[in-house]
Structure formats: structure tokens, C-alpha cells
Design a protein that fits this description.
The chain is an all-alpha fold. It folds into two domains: 224 residues, no CATH class; 206 residues, no CATH class. Helix content is 83%, strand content 0%. Helix 7 packs antiparallel against helix 8. 51% of the residues are buried. GO terms for molecular function: antiporter activity; xenobiotic transmembrane transporter activity. Keywords: Antiport, Cell membrane, Ion transport, Membrane, Transmembrane, Transmembrane helix, Transport. It comes from Pseudorhodobacter antarcticus.
């Protein structure tokens, strides 16, 4: 058992916020990388924008699946630190990096031959060809992108999150500058269009990895872990452990991401205006979700530390405080979405567009509905964070897949089409799926959390 003084609830809250606020900021900055690409290619051309949106979606789906190995580093390193096992810290983090490299190498052929895949999925030939041009370059960035995820998880587990924030913010600025030069041919650079955007992404990911790796290796407090010492030597036992924890995390993320991708596809069946409003409402909801995700990451670290120390009381106290912080922010978002939905949607639109009024009206309805699932969405991601801190990932994966795909998607379809509720029906179905996930995952945590004696 731990011999360190037990924290009070306010001390738990402070520890969570010190760890979580930079993670929230880094998640928001990460979103800005995507926004920057979208805005700049929107300036360049419609076909180019469509091709990169399509290509980036494929890249993101594969990235989410592979990022589970990097994300597994967070709870594993946190538990090892809780036990005082610094050798295991290095073993787990290094094998998370190894698995990330292996996944990136294995998936690159998908990007090289992506045109045939996109055509088989019914996409337009010109858009598919240009998306392949983009992905043949951007796919090279899968390895550094996954390595960045693993290093971010490692640094979060050792509670060095400030550097993660500032390096991510710098990456946004770097990506925007290279995009401006290579997409449009500014500053004497060649005009490369989508290829320029791909080069910018790969270069930004590579520089981000180098910066994080340099910090992880040379920062005085972290040198004792010798993260890259004899990096070339395999550690099959640690690799197996990271794989066991990591692949369910990747599939869980894929299941949740797929839920919203499927909702966008079905909204497209209803109409273009409805799809535009859907995209705006999801973007706003995603921004709010980043706060819960950052708190969930911080909770994973705190729960992992308590688990490693064998301190059941601290584990439960920390989880309760994290949950209450997330719920407090969720309540604020519910009030905001119900009080100012039209004003929020209007921020994304050109007032001169004749369709703006209709999009605002429909988006207002969707934002009001999103207020319904703010609390359950927060609950499910917080429960996932707690369970990952305990290295419980397989059963939560099953519960997430059941909630999102066996319940959420079918209910969305039934409410939207056979029952004739349209777009609001789709969002009610999302709420049902997220609610089921929240209940099941919270019950799982309550049943698995160590008892206080």
C-alpha cells in the first residue's frame, strides 16, 4: 500500500486540472490542424478540398485504429510509476513506440492503392484520383503521427503535459505556414495543391515527433528513464502487454468515430442543407468534447497511479472528482446550447448566402438535441478513462461496440427514416447509443474498482 499522504477532494481537483488543462489545450490545437487544412484548401479549389477531406477521413480512420498502442502507454506507465518500477516505464513506452512503427509500415499500402478503394466505395473518379495523390504522400506521416501519440501518452503519464500543449500549438503554426507556401506557391515555393498540403502534414508530424522525443530524452527529470537506451532491442513480453491493452482501445475509438461518420452519411441521404447544419453542430459538440477528453486522459493517469500504489480510496476519490468536474462543464454546455443555439450556428455561416437562414434553423434544432447527450457523452468518455487507468480495455470495447453499432446506429436509422423524424431522429439515436454506453461503462467501473477497506 502507498505511504504517501492521502489527498483531499480539492487537492484531487487541483492535480487533475494541472494535468488536464494542458491536455485539453493540446486536443483543441490538434483540431486546429484539421481546420487549417480545410480552410486553406477551401480557398484553393472545390475538387481539391473534397479530395483532401476524403483522404484525410481515410487517414483518420486508420490512425484511430493504430493509436490504441500509443494510448495504452498512458495507463501502463502511470501504473508502473505508482509501483515505483522505473524500468517498466521504459519497457512499456518503448514497445508502444515499436508497435506504432509496425502499424504504420503495415498500413501504408492502403494509402498507395487508395484510389481503387475509394472508387469501390462509390466516390467520384476525379476526387478519388486526387485523394490518392494526397494519401501517397500523407500516408508517410502515419508513423510519426502514431509516434507522437505514444510520446504524448508517455509525457502525460509522467505528468509533463505543458510541453505537449506548446509543441502542439507550434505545430499548428508550422503547418499553416508550410500550407501557405506549398499549396499556393507563395514565398517562391512551387505551387503543389493537395500534394503541398500532404507534404506540410508529413513535415509537421515529423518535426513534432522530433521535438517531443528530444524533450523526453533530455529533460532532466526524465533522463533517469533512459527512454531510447538500446531502442533497437525488442522486448517481447512488454510488447505483448502493450498490444493486449492497446488493440481494444483502438477498436473502441474506431467504433465511436464510426458512429458519427455513419450519422453524417445518413444525414447526407436527407439533404445537403441538413448535412451542412449537421457538420456545424458536430464541430461545436466536438469542441466541447475536447474538454471532457482532456479530463478523461488526466483521470486515466491519476487512476493508474493510484492503482499502481494499491490505494483504493485515492482511486475512487480521484475518479469522483474527475467525474464531477466533467459534469460541471457539461451543465455549462447544456445551458449554452439551449440559450444561444442560433448565434453559435451563425458563426460558421456567410449571412449573404440564401441558404443560411434554413441552415441556422435546422442547426438550432440539432444543437438543442446535442444538449440532451452532453452529460451522457461526458459520462461515457470519463468512464472509459477510469477503466483504462485500471488497464481494463477488452470488455469496455465490447460494450462500446454494442452501444454504438448494435443500438445507436439502428435506432438512428429507424427514427430518421421508417418513423419519419429525419435529422432530429438521427440525433436522438445518437443520444440513445451514447446513453447506453454511459450506463454500461459506468457500471463496469463501479464493479471493477477496488473496494475501500
Amino acid at each position: 500500500m502507498t505511504t504517501t499522504p492521502r489527498l483531499t477532494k480539492p487537492q484531487h481537483a487541483r492535480a487533475l486540472l494541472v494535468l488536464g488543462l494542458p491536455l485539453i489545450g493540446s486536443h483543441l490545437a490538434q483540431m486546429m490542424l484539421h481546420v487549417t487544412d480545410t480552410v486553406m484548401l477551401g480557398w484553393y479549389g472545390v475538387v481539391e478540398l473534397a479530395s483532401v477531406v476524403l483522404g484525410a477521413s481515410l487517414f483518420f480512420i486508420i490512425f484511430i485504429l493504430g493509436s490504441g498502442f500509443g494510448q495504452a502507454v498512458m495507463p501502463m506507465v502511470a501504473q508502473a510509476l505508482g509501483r515505483g518500477d522505473e524500468v517498466q516505464v521504459r519497457r512499456d513506452a518503448r514497445m508502444g513506440l515499436w508497435l506504432s512503427i509496425g502499424f504504420g509500415v503495415m498500413t501504408y499500402p492502403v494509402f498507395w492503392w487508395s484510389e481503387a478503394l475509394l472508387l469501390a466505395l462509390g466516390q467520384q473518379p476525379d476526387v478519388s484520383a486526387m485523394a490518392q495523390d494526397y494519401l501517397r504522400i500523407a500516408g508517410l506521416g502515419m508513423i510519426p503521427a502514431l509516434l507522437v501519440m505514444a510520446l504524448k501518452s508517455y509525457l502525460a503519464a509522467v505528468e509533463k503535459t505543458q510541453v505537449v500543449l506548446w509543441i502542439t500549438v507550434a505545430a499548428v503554426a508550422l503547418n499553416a505556414g508550410i500550407n501557405y507556401a506549398l499549396i499556393f506557391g507563395n514565398w517562391g515555393a512551387p505551387e503543389m495543391g493537395v500534394r503541398g498540403a500532404a507534404i506540410a502534414s508529413v513535415f509537421t508530424q515529423a518535426v513534432t515527433f522530433v521535438a517531443l522525443a528530444f524533450y523526453a530524452h533530455w529533460q532532466p527529470d526524465l533522463r533517469r528513464f533512459n527512454l531510447f537506451q538500446r531502442f533497437w532491442r525488442p522486448d517481447w513480453q512488454a510488447m505483448g502487454q502493450v498490444y493486449r491493452i492497446g488493440w481494444p482501445i483502438g477498436l473502441t475509438g474506431l467504433a465511436e468515430g464510426g458512429l458519427f461518420q455513419a450519422s453524417a452519411i445518413m444525414m447526407g441521404w436527407i439533404g445537403t442543407m441538413e448535412l451542412a447544419a449537421h457538420g456545424i453542430a458536430l464541430e461545436v459538440t466536438a469542441l466541447a468534447f475536447m474538454v471532457h477528453l482532456g479530463l478523461s486522459n488526466a483521470a486515466t493517469v491519476r487512476v493508474g497511479r493510484a492503482m499502481g500504489q494499491g490505494d483504493a480510496q485515492s482511486l475512487r476519490d480521484g475518479a469522483l472528482v474527475a467525474f464531477m468536474l466533467s459534469m460541471g462543464f457539461g451543465v455549462a454546455m447544456v445551458v449554452l446550447f439551449l440559450a444561444l443555439p442560433a448565434q453559435i450556428v451563425a458563426l460558421f455561416l456567410d449571412k449573404a448566402n440564401p441558404e443560411t437562414a434554413a441552415i441556422i434553423a435546422f442547426g438550432t434544432t440539432l444543437l438543442a438535441l446535442s444538449a440532451l447527450f452532453q452529460m451522457v457523452d461526458a459520462t461515457q468518455v470519463m468512464a472509459l478513462g477510469f477503466l483504462r487507468g485500471m488497464q481494463d480495455t477488452k470488455v469496455p470495447m465490447v460494450l462500446a461496440c454494442l452501444s454504438y453499432w448494435v443500438i445507436g446506429i439502428p435506432v438512428s436509422y429507424i427514427l430518421a427514416f421508417p418513423m419519419g423524424l429525419g435529422g432530429p431522429g438521427l440525433w436522438l439515436g445518437l443520444t440513445v447509443g451514447l446513453t447506453v454506453a454511459a450506463v454500461l461503462l459506468l457500471l463496469r467501473f463501479r464493479s471493477r474498482a477496488p473496494k475501500v477497506v
